[in-house]
Automatic annotation (TrEMBL):
It comes from the Eukaryota. It comes from Aulographum hederae CBS 113979. This is Hemerythrin-like domain-containing protein. Gene3D superfamilies: nmb1532 protein domain like. Residues 4-122 form the Hemerythrin-like domain. The lineage of its organism: Eukaryota, Fungi, Dikarya, Ascomycota, Pezizomycotina.
Length: 194
């Protein structure tokens, strides 16, 4: 059983891998598949954190947790606005690589803060309750299965509004995912089928 930090870090490494696949390739088809995979993973990862991780910071870490969560939400919002532009671009667009690099500039900084400051502080505050971090990892995994797979910055970052918007937009996203190209090794990019 993994902790919530381990689940989050695993996602971060996957995102980095998909990003590298896009920027290190000249093959538009390859770039489109991994660009779509990046969008899909980042949209779900962000909403998963907003539903499971940031509320837990507020619940278990007092005012420090509240400030941390608010700062993380505002960083997510900036990334989502860029992701919304990127997700509608074709990899043949000369600005395709530029746009994902712009996203990665903000995102890599945010990831670093989460891994170096936020997650260790959260784990420390969860310590007193056995298995809480592990059960949060399970919730995070489940949440990612039904949240939107595209960026919807207008939905906001605060639950429960995000939850409601997520449920409204998710089925539409998942239908559209069927017609999008993904890396060949992806078994099913459509979480709504699970
Ligand atoms: Fe985040
Ligand atoms: Fe994250």
């Amino acid at each position: 059983m993994s902790t919530i930090s381990e689940a989050i870090v695993k996602d971060h490494r996957e995102l980095e891998q998909y990003y590298n696949e896009v920027i290190n390739s000249n093959d538009h088809d390859h770039q489109q598949r991994f660009g779509n995979q990046f969008t899909w993973e980042l949209a779900r990862h962000s909403v998963g954190e907003e539903l499971v991780v940031y509320p837990a910071m507020e619940k278990h870490m007092g005012s420090k947790g509240h400030d941390m969560a608010e700062s993380d939400r505002s960083e997510h919002h900036k990334v989502k606005l860029l992701l919304k532009e990127f997700q509608n671009m074709k990899s043949s667009d000369p600005k395709y690589t530029y746009k994902i690099k712009e996203i990665w500039g903000l995102l890599s900084q945010h990831i670093k803060e989460e891994e170096q400051n936020d997650l260790p502080a959260l784990e420390e505050s969860l310590k007193a309750q056995p298995n809480l971090s592990e059960s949060m990892a399970t919730s995070f995994g489940r949440t990612k299965a039904f949240v939107p797979s595209r960026s919807h910055p207008s939905a906001g970052e605060h639950p429960p509004f995000e939850t409601v918007m997520g449920l409204l937009t998710a089925p539409v996203d998942h239908v559209a995912d069927i017609f999008r190209k993904f890396p060949n090794q992806t078994v099913s990019p459509n979480p709504s089928t699970k």
